[in-house]
Specification:
The protein is of the alpha+beta class and 700 residues long. It has 19 helices and 18 strands. It has a six-stranded antiparallel sheet with strand order 8-7-6-11-10-9. It has a five-stranded antiparallel sheet with strand order 2-1-5-4-3, sandwiched between helices. A five-stranded mixed sheet has the order 13-15-16-18-17. Strand 3 and strand 4 form a beta hairpin. The longest helix is centred in the first third of the chain and has 79 residues. The two termini are 34 Å apart.
Length: 700
């Protein structure tokens, strides 16, 4: 913030504008009294008073209304600075005109009218600029929030992948430990057997009776296939035949004891000859229940980890929340082998949860059915009030809450439910349910919570995206309104200036005989001042339209561009006998019209501030990675180091108006155009040694 803006901020931007408007109202009242007492016709007094009081009313009104114009409070002082800038520029023009020999402007009415109109023009440009800066800040803030949400989601996926890796390593160590333990324990239940080609048992150990529950007499009368389920008889008979034919066989099958239980076993056998020289098949059967269960658990964890990674990636790739929720419901139900899964969307205002997505439910449930979120004894309300997953093993015997009709009507007995989002501001609930009474492992609960976290991250990211799209839409709409304002400023706001000129000419025609030579000159000056004011408004609007009125970026030949600049400045170059030299200049990516304006301003300034010597201007270029540094150098008066940062501010002038013409907008306009091209502009200078202005532009 500049020193001027800081001073205005101390007083208050609104107070400055309202105070300035009040000053014009007081001036209009006082001047009307003086003119009436001096015998000036009432009609003339009303015209002059209206032209002075009008800007005062506009300043007071918009000064009071500033907070309602969607301008950030940080930019109110900037709006006031624009207003004062317009006032200061007009005062400078009046002083410049008065410094001409025989010319002076001392008529209070003329001064008040022109400075009032200049203040209103500055206020309009300031409001436009303040709104644009406010929208830009909001857009940057939303972009940062969206980037943060995306970063957090990626970090969450990375943490889950790291956790999966660590879990796999832990499972490997646990598997090695269990393998040895199971080997020792399984040996206790190993069954040894000898069978002939018909499958009849000829010998067996005690474990056969212990495991199957049959007595030795019963075993002696049984065939090998009798120890298995009927659907496995053919497969076991084929395995026995294969063992005798190939000399060895290995098969896995469920051993069925007398009580009907199924026990997974792995059988290995080889052919031998009994003492009578007959071939027999001797082997061992090993209980693999623990190993089978362990393999299923490992497979289950692997599937869960794979689903977490897959859904995490889908959350990053899709913007369709319903697609993500539907896929999450399907995957959770499938992996946990549950019949139902649902995603509930919380409606705080109505105190209910909508079944937004789900699987397994009857037709008409998903997208239509709701569950109360306010009933104190309901599972939904209990889940929303809990900061950890809720596990139900048997809903009928559950004492913490009662199941909603949705679950009871579908015969649900067990399940897991957890909130989606932060505990203090939940978005909804993720729940999976089964009709059987089940016990869920900790890993199953963690899996459901991980999926809920992914949904929460995706919902938050979607909210930021929707907010960003809304903000972009609002910004586009605001820019359109600002464009309309800019059109009005460039046409309608200039109408009062033309009206001033018309009335002054009317005064000249009607009362010309009563005016002396000085009076006629004053009227001519007032008309000229109005024309100058119109040029100033055009310059301010051009500065404010750099972003909204800029063309598309395209390859630009800066050598050709500089030739065009030379042609446009031909008269000025000839008048000053200026010498302009260039090096080989590159092609850059930019807006041809705006870059033409930049180089025309820089070359014109280099000629203007060359002092008493013949102007010598040199344009050079240097490659710097993916961009070019272009410089415009002169051998003129130079700039003090303390003033070098000020020259890029609006209305900042380092030289007296009688020494050099200009509005103080040119370099500020150059800086804004360069910033639009993602470049930088700076100055290097020493008093009396000349000045070099450099800027960066992307290479084409």
């Amino acid at each position: 913030m500049t020193l001027r803006n800081r001073l205005i901020a101390v007083v208050g931007g609104r107070r400055v504008i309202i105070g300035l408007g009040a000053l014009y109202l007081v001036s209009a009242t006082a001047l009307a009294g003086v003119q009436l007492s001096g015998g000036t016709p009432i009609a003339n007094v009303l015209v002059i008073t209206t032209l002075i009081a009008g800007p005062g009313i506009v300043l007071c009104y918009y000064g009071y209304r500033l907070p309602a114009l969607d301008i950030d409070a940080d930019f109110l002082s900037s709006v006031a600075a624009w207003c004062l800038g317009g006032l200061g520029l007009m005062i400078g023009l009046l002083v410049l005109y008065s410094l001409q020999p025989g010319e002076i402007v001392d008529d209070p009415a003329t001064i008040s009218i022109l400075t009032g109109l200049a203040s209103v023009a500055g206020l309009g440009a300031g409001i436009y600029n303040g709104r644009a800066e406010t929208r830009t800040r909001e857009l940057e803030h939303r972009n940062r929030e969206l980037e943060r949400a995306q970063t957090e989601l990626r970090e969450t996926v990375d943490r889950l992948e790291e956790l999966n890796t660590r879990l796999e390593r832990s499972n490997e160590r646990l598997d090695r430990s269990r393998r040895y333990t199971d080997h020792v324990l399984d040996a206790i239940h190993d069954v040894f057997y000898v069978i002939d080609e018909t499958g009849a048992l000829q010998r067996w150990n005690e474990s056969v009776g212990d495991v199957t529950g049959y007595s030795d007499a019963e075993i002696a009368s049984m065939n090998a296939i009798d120890f298995f389920a009927a659907e496995d008889h053919e497969r076991i008979a084929n395995a026995i035949a294969e063992g005798f034919a190939a000399g060895t066989v290995q098969v896995k099958a469920a051993l069925v004891p007398k009580n009907g239980e199924r026990i997974p076993y792995e059988f290995s056998a080889s052919t031998l000859e009994n003492p009578r020289g007959e071939p027999v098949l001797a082997g061992v059967g090993r209980d693999i229940s623990a190993r089978t269960m362990r393999e299923r658990e490992l497979e289950q964890r692997t599937r869960q980890q794979r689903v977490v990674a897959t859904l995490g990636q889908l959350a990053l790739e899709t913007d369709d929340l319903d697609e993500l929720m539907a896929e999450a419901s399907r995957q959770v139900a499938d992996v946990l082998e549950c019949e139902y899964c649902k995603v509930l969307d919380l409606d705080d205002e109505n105190g209910e949860l909508l079944v937004r997505q789900g699987v397994g439910w009857r037709d008409g449930i998903v997208g239509e059915a709701t569950v109360s979120a306010d009933e104190s004894d309901s599972q939904a309300a209990y889940t929303l009030a809990t900061d950890h997953p809720v596990v139900v093993e048997d809903l009928e015997s559950e004492s913490r809450f009662s199941g909603p009709d949705l679950l009871i009507d579908h015969g649900v007995h067990s399940g897991i439910s957890t909130i989606i989002g932060p505990a203090d501001e939940p978005w909804g609930i993720l729940g999976t349910h089964d009709t059987a009474s089940r016990t869920f492992a900790d890993e199953d609960v963690n899996f459901v919570q991980s999926i809920a976290n992914i949904l929460a991250e995706a919902i938050e990211r979607k909210r930021y995206q929707d907010e960003l799209e809304r903000l972009v839409s609002d910004l586009t709409e605001s820019n359109e309104r600002l464009e309309q304002f800019a059109y009005a400023a460039s046409h309608d706001l200039q109408e009062p200036l033309r009206m001033v000129s018309s009335y002054l000419r009317l005064i000249e025609r009607r009362y010309g005989d009563e005016l002396d030579e000085d009076g006629e000159e004053f009227l001519a000056f007032a008309v000229d001042g109005a024309d100058r004011m119109r040029s100033m408004i055009d310059g301010l609007l051009e500065y404010s339209r750099v972003e909204t009125q800029g063309g598309s970026l395209e390859p630009v030949d800066t050598e050709q561009l500089l030739d065009d600049v030379r042609e446009d400045l031909r008269l000025k170059i000839e008048d000053h006998d200026a010498e302009i030299t260039t090096e080989s200049l590159p092609r850059v990516e930019g807006d041809p019209r705006q870059l033409h304006q930049v180089f025309q301003n820089l070359v014109s300034n280099a000629i203007e501030y060359s002092g008493d010597e013949t102007p010598r201007v040199h344009v050079s270029a240097e490659r710097n990675g993916a961009e070019w540094i272009l410089s415009v150098s002169d051998e003129g008066v130079g700039i003090d180091e303390d003033d070098q940062d000020r020259i890029f501010e609006v209305f900042e002038r380092l030289h007296a108006a009688e020494d050099h013409t200009g509005t103080g907008i040119g370099l500020a306009l150059c800086e804004r155009i360069v910033e639009r091209h993602d470049g930088e502009i700076w100055v290097e200078s020493e008093p009396g040694e000349g000045t070099t202005v450099s800027l960066t532009l992307p290479a084409a």
